[in-house]
Design brief:
Length: 445
């Protein structure tokens, strides 16, 4: 087992990893930018190293600075959390070259899943259902129009290097294709330095359901049930829950088998997630694989009573899994609490937290790095907390979330708590009647 792990991240996920490491008897090293010198992950780690100024490229995305911090602290492993360098093949390879274990996917695994067109080809060969679309990248505009006719409109144009909804366009008819093609390529080039595109059939009334998997270096892969992440705004998730209210035993088994096939196809090692789109007829299609821990991992932990961070560390240390698949034993919901103003187009609201009261009670969990007097820097993602509740049934979990939200008091900045309060009261949400388009018609009161 590792003796010392450096956490190459910030905020709540850095604190989350530190807590598990301490329970495992592993020393921890926090890295931080000058903007994060007062963050809790810096205070609670055994050691802390400043790796640069506030801008991410000069700190949390600076590979030389992070490797140097690991070397001067004699860290034998690096946990990247999520975001930043967690799915960066170059960084994974750099860790390997320096004799430091990267607690995440190998460069080969990241590359095989990071390019969406290559990932789709790999999944098709593994027998995993995929959305009908282009056979690889589109050569040009004419090729794109030809494929769209073959698979029939509506279609989705996607950037192969895309993420967060950038470089994506829904096209309903041929007359709109050229304009979508030009704008998507321009956006993708600016965001990712790559304007290569591919095309897929647009799945109507889709749900975003993902399967958590774990794989070891001995070839075993298991699944740890599903999460429903359909409540999202502009492709950014707001609420996640496990199990999905849309799921039945047959669908869970079929999706679980497909996720295992996906992980086995690339000889996956570690904790990862296979994301699917599921249509109203319960047909499901591979969307992408995340070769890292995810923001919403707590809901899975709650419904199967399993520490996914600990499992990540054990797998990286070469400890095998049992191969057992896990099924949900209760219901869990997570609300992402962002420092944003939901009444002003979700404008970020950095600043000093004057008052903080976190909810508690049975089945209530708050993952956060904030405290009264803490100043939220304007330089990073606006998520400041995750409120997770668990109960025996979905109905009980919703009621518990309503109660917990009513106790969650944050003064000094705007937050998305009022949005979540209204979401929990929404009739369609309570009935489980929603798709990824839910927020397009949801009206905040």
């Amino acid at each position: 087992m590792f003796k010392k792990i450096l956490i190459a991240n910030r905020g709540e996920i850095a604190l989350r990893v530190i807590r598990t490491c301490k329970e495992m008897g592993i020393q921890t090293v926090a890295v931080y930018s000058t903007a994060d010198k007062d963050s809790l992950h810096v205070k609670f780690a055994d050691e802390a190293v400043c790796i640069g100024p506030a801008p991410s490229p000069k700190s949390y995305l600076s590979m030389p600075n992070i490797i140097a911090a690991a070397e001067i602290t004699n860290s034998d492993a690096i946990h990247p959390g999520y975001g930043f360098l967690s799915e960066n093949a170059t960084f994974s390879e750099m860790c390997r070259d320096h004799g430091i274990k990267f607690i995440g996917a190998s460069p080969e695994m990241i590359n095989s899943m990071g390019d969406k067109a290559n990932a789709k080809d790999t999944m098709i060969k593994a027998g995993v259902p995929c959305v009908p679309g282009s056979d690889g990248l589109l050569k040009d505009l004419k090729h794109g129009i030809k494929v769209a006719k073959e698979i029939e409109y509506p279609v989705m144009l996607k950037a192969t290097a895309g993420g967060g909804g950038r470089g994506m366009r829904i096209i309903w008819k041929e007359d709109d294709f050229e304009e979508a093609w030009n704008s998507a390529r321009t956006e993708s080039k600016a965001a990712f330095g790559n304007d290569a595109m591919y095309l897929e059939k647009f799945v109507e009334e889709p749900r975003h359901i993902e399967i958590q998997i774990a794989g070891d270096q001995y070839g075993k892969v298991c699944h740890l049930s599903e999460r429903d992440c359909s409540i999202q705004r502009r492709h950014q998730k707001l609420v996640e829950e496990a199990p999905s209210p849309f799921m039945d035993d047959d669908l869970r088994e079929r999706m679980g088998d497909a996720a295992i096939a996906a992980g086995t196809a690339i000889k996956y090692e570690g904790v990862g997630t296979i994301e699917f789109l599921v249509d109203k007829h319960k047909n499901f299609y591979f969307m992408e694989m995340n070769t890292r821990i995810q923001v919403e991992h707590p809901v899975t932990e709650e419904v199967i009573n399993f520490d996914l961070i600990k499992e990540q560390i054990k797998l990286a240390a070469g400890i095998p899994i049992s191969g057992k698949n896990y099924l949900p034993e209760k219901h869990s919901i997570e609300c992402r609490i962002n420092a944003e103003d939901p009444y002003n187009d979700f404008r970020p609201s950095p600043g000093k937290i004057e008052v903080l009261h976190k909810p508690g009670g049975h089945g209530v969990r708050v993952d956060t790095h904030i405290y009264a007097g803490y100043s939220i820097p304007p330089n990073y993602d606006s998520m400041i907390a995750k409120l997770i509740v668990s109960a025996q049934t979905r109905e009980e979990a919703i009621v518990k979330m309503e109660r917990a939200l009513s106790e969650f008091i944050i003064e000094g900045v705007k937050t998305t708590i009022p949005l979540h309060v209204q979401l929990m009261k929404d009739k369609n949400f309570r009935e489980g009647n929603f798709t990824t388009k839910f927020m397009e018609t949801f009206k905040l009161k």
